[in-house]
């Protein structure tokens, strides 16, 4: 995993736990054959592809917020 990609991705998703979850789920998808959402001229590991997708805004996520009881 490239440090520069990790630093840039942390600017997009500042909570490290959320970033880890988003990237790890995307890495699983890539390993199961889904196509990358970013293009690269160099060979990247799935972790780097997922980080680049976060940096470029190609991956969206939503946090679960339970409805409060009234």
UniProtKB/TrEMBL annotation:
Enzyme category, top tier: transferase
Domain of life: Bacteria
Gene Ontology cellular-component annotations: DNA-directed RNA polymerase complex
Keyword entries, A-Z: DNA-directed RNA polymerase, Nucleotidyltransferase, Transcription, Transferase
Molecular function terms, GO-annotated: DNA binding; DNA-directed RNA polymerase activity
Catalytic activity: RNA(n) + a ribonucleoside 5'-triphosphate = RNA(n+1) + diphosphate
Pfam families: RNA_pol_Rpb6 (PF01192)
GO annotation, biological process: DNA-templated transcription
EC numbers for this chain: 2.7.7.6
Entry similarity comment: Belongs to the RNA polymerase subunit omega family.
Protein name, as recorded: DNA-directed RNA polymerase subunit omega
Species the sequence originates in: Ruficoccus amylovorans
């Amino acid at each position: 995993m490239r440090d520069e990609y990790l630093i840039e991705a942390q600017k997009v998703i500042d909570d490290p736990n959320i970033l880890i979850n988003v990237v790890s789920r995307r890495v699983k998808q890539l390993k199961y054959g889904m196509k990358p959402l970013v293009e690269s001229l160099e060979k990247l590991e799935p972790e780097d592809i997922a980080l680049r997708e976060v940096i470029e805004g190609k991956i969206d996520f939503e946090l679960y917020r339970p409805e409060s009881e009234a």
